[in-house]
Amino acid sequence: MAYQLKNELLAVDIADPGEYRGTRFDWSGFITGVRFAGHTFCVPESLIPGQGTGGKGLCSEFGIAQAIGYDEAGIGGKFPKLGVGLLTRPDAAPYQFFRAYEAEPFSIMTEQKGPKSITFTVLPKDCNGYAVQLVKTVSIDHDRLIVSVEMDNVGTRPVHTDEYCHNFFGIDGTPIGPDYVLRFPFASSPWSDDPGTLDGLAFSGNEVTWERQPEQEFYFRLPGFDGAEQPWLWELLHRPSGLGVRERSKLRVAAAAVWGKGHVVSPEMFVEVKLAPGERQTWTRIYEFFKTV
């Protein structure tokens, strides 16, 4: 079954753990849809069925560049992908986030606390001394969607990784192009390992715009910053409708990136996760939905 949170402005659809069967994104609190004042904000990673890694809406990922314990697992050995389960390393190739791995899923407990809040608890399972309990609470308050994360290292080994939310946004299904503007609270200084992924994008001060609907994927990076010192982290506006979303999280952003293609744009704010045995780390993401006209 799927879950829904609802108030006078927002309706948020959340997948039941196990509905998404991939080995990339966190199975807990996988938000598949957001409607604000009757308007839709979320889209799938790909419009072609079966293409991509199964992302949709707001879904988080741990360790996109390097999974915990992968190098030491050995061929045929297991390693933990937080929020997913114990994965099996099939060969000597480096870890690849887009690859499908054989998985032994973590057990996930779900408790819905009325129409405005739901909590997912990912139970720890030891793997070579790595064991983390993950608790994620998704709630709504007026025009805000709030995702709170609590992580406890209950294993015997330190955990050092990162987490981000892949925000697959496309407002009312409108293609990405000149009608959109993406803003940051400061003048941006983006870069890309592949300059071709910047084709058709324009950067002016704190704004990013599109000259046309992208035909290929676009991607660029931004340096980290202290979100506690900013009014918000980023803001996406569809100018003709006045509909938009901004992230008001007070995070220490370790790194930032923006990915997208013709139907979707995803600002990504990374959090460093660093836990000694017995330690706890918490953070909260806050999304505010609005209409200017």
Distance N terminus to C terminus? 37 Å
The largest pleated sheet is described as:
10 strands, antiparallel
Would you identify the CATH architecture?
Distorted Sandwich
Number of strands: 22
Element-level helix/strand string: EEEEEHEEEEEEEEEEEEEEEEE
- Rg, rounded, reads 19 Å
Summarize the structure in short.
With 293 residues, the protein is mainly β. The protein has one helix spanning 70-73, and strands at residues 3-6, 10-14, 31-36, 39-40, 58-62, 78-81, 85-88, 103-105, 108-112, 117-122, 132-141, 144-153, 159-167, 180-183, 201-204, 207-210, 218-226, 234-238, 243-247, 252-261, 264-275, 280-291. It is globular.
How would you describe this structure in keywords?
single chain; 293 residues; mainly beta; Beta-galactosidase, Chain A, domain 5; ten-stranded antiparallel sheet; five-stranded antiparallel sheet; 1% helix; globular; DUF4432 family protein
What are the SSEs and their pairings?
Elements: E1 3-6, E2 10-14, E3 31-36, E4 39-40, E5 58-62, H1 70-73, E6 78-81, E7 85-88, E8 103-105, E9 108-112, E10 117-122, E11 132-141, E12 144-153, E13 159-167, E14 180-183, E15 201-204, E16 207-210, E17 218-226, E18 234-238, E19 243-247, E20 252-261, E21 264-275, E22 280-291
Antiparallel strand pairs: 1-2, 2-3, 3-4, 5-13, 6-7, 7-8, 9-10, 10-11, 11-12, 12-22, 13-21, 14-16, 14-18, 15-16, 17-20, 18-19, 19-22, 20-21
